[in-house]
Amino acid sequence: MTAVTETQLAKLVKLLQACKIVDLSQVLAEELPTTWPGHMVYQHKLWNWFAPREGFGGQKIFSTAPYHTRFLIVDEHTSTHFDAPTHFVPPPDSGLPLAGPLGDITGDKVPLAQLQGTAAVIDVSHLSRGENGGENGVSPWVTAQHVREWEARHGSLGKGDIILLRTGWDRYYTEGQEGEKYVVRPVMRKDFPGWPAPSVDLVEYGLSKGVRCLGIDAPSIGAAHDGRPAHEAGLSQGMLYVESLTNLDRLPARGSYFVFMPLKIANSSGGPGRALAYVPE
What we know:
Elements: H1 3-17, E1 19-23, E2 43-48, E3 53-54, E4 60-61, E5 69-73, E6 81-83, E7 116-123, E8 141-142, H2 144-154, E9 161-166, H3 176-179, H4 184-189, E10 197-198, H5 200-208, E11 213-216, H6 228-235, E12 240-243, E13 257-262, E14 270-280
Parallel strand pairs: 7-9, 8-10, 9-11, 11-12
Antiparallel strand pairs: 1-14, 2-5, 3-4, 6-12, 6-14, 7-13, 13-14
Helix pairs in contact: 2-5, 5-6
């Protein structure tokens, strides 16, 4: 390592130490709306405890040694997670529509550099109808025009920027009946409005500006009434998506640095992970 590189590294460390870390990840818990309806339900179970104890339903849990461990059953697209290209792009030898080389890009092959960058936090929470009205089962569109209006105030997007759509929908990521508004009621029952979702023209506009990653604090990039178009438009061109974020209201429109670190799962279509942002104080 050269002296110049060491100096640059020292400056970077000082900059990071001067930042606060904002956790943008939703917590995983069985009582929370972690899983997309119809997918494998998230489960987190006790495997071993420090000593024998009574478990769920009065079942006896034996202890093999004085330590604590649990096991998970988790869908790849659970809580805060990312979509790899192969989530919607079939492999090239499949003969299926939209098939191509990106269909071979599984979660473990995605470059981590693409999942971090300068955050462009676009507040579209005014589109979240929720209890205030809106068409049940339908998502309002976040369009390229919303992005252009943001750029007029905060500067143009560019290569290395990551768009984070702040919808405010994370308020429904909670327990009980209120938590059913997060995804079950808009998607399954269709008796509650959907979350704001990016239109295809927004995705294409972002790609034209060099944006290669887009995040949202709602359960999906796809609309409640049709999840395919936005997924296919971005993933088929190598864009990555991070879904089910939270705390985007704690970030400035400009000036923070976003990081998502997924589990490295072989042959995956994506996977859960931890999202954070470095915010200068």
